[in-house]
Amino acid sequence: MKPTTLKTPLVLVNLKCYTESIGNGAHRIARAAREVSDESGITIALAPLYMDIHPIIHHYDIPVFAQHVDPVEPGAHTGRMPLPAIKSAGAIGSLVNHSEYRLSVADIEKNVTALRQAQMLSCVCSNNVATTKALAALGPDYVAIEPPELIGGKMSVSEANPEIITGSVDAVRNINSSVKVLTGAGIHSGTCVKTAVELGTEGVLLASSVVKAEDPAAILRDLVSLL
Amino acid sequence: MKPTTLKTPLVLVNLKCYTESIGNGAHRIARAAREVSDESGITIALAPLYMDIHPIIHHYDIPVFAQHVDPVEPGAHTGRMPLPAIKSAGAIGSLVNHSEYRLSVADIEKNVTALRQAQMLSCVCSNNVATTKALAALGPDYVAIEPPELIGGKMSVSEANPEIITGSVDAVRNINSSVKVLTGAGIHSGTCVKTAVELGTEGVLLASSVVKAEDPAAILRDLVSLL
Amino acid sequence: MKPTTLKTPLVLVNLKCYTESIGNGAHRIARAAREVSDESGITIALAPLYMDIHPIIHHYDIPVFAQHVDPVEPGAHTGRMPLPAIKSAGAIGSLVNHSEYRLSVADIEKNVTALRQAQMLSCVCSNNVATTKALAALGPDYVAIEPPELIGGKMSVSEANPEIITGSVDAVRNINSSVKVLTGAGIHSGTCVKTAVELGTEGVLLASSVVKAEDPAAILRDLVSLL
Amino acid sequence: MKPTTLKTPLVLVNLKCYTESIGNGAHRIARAAREVSDESGITIALAPLYMDIHPIIHHYDIPVFAQHVDPVEPGAHTGRMPLPAIKSAGAIGSLVNHSEYRLSVADIEKNVTALRQAQMLSCVCSNNVATTKALAALGPDYVAIEPPELIGGKMSVSEANPEIITGSVDAVRNINSSVKVLTGAGIHSGTCVKTAVELGTEGVLLASSVVKAEDPAAILRDLVSLL
Question: What ipTM does the predicted assembly reach?
Answer without folding.
Answer: 0.94
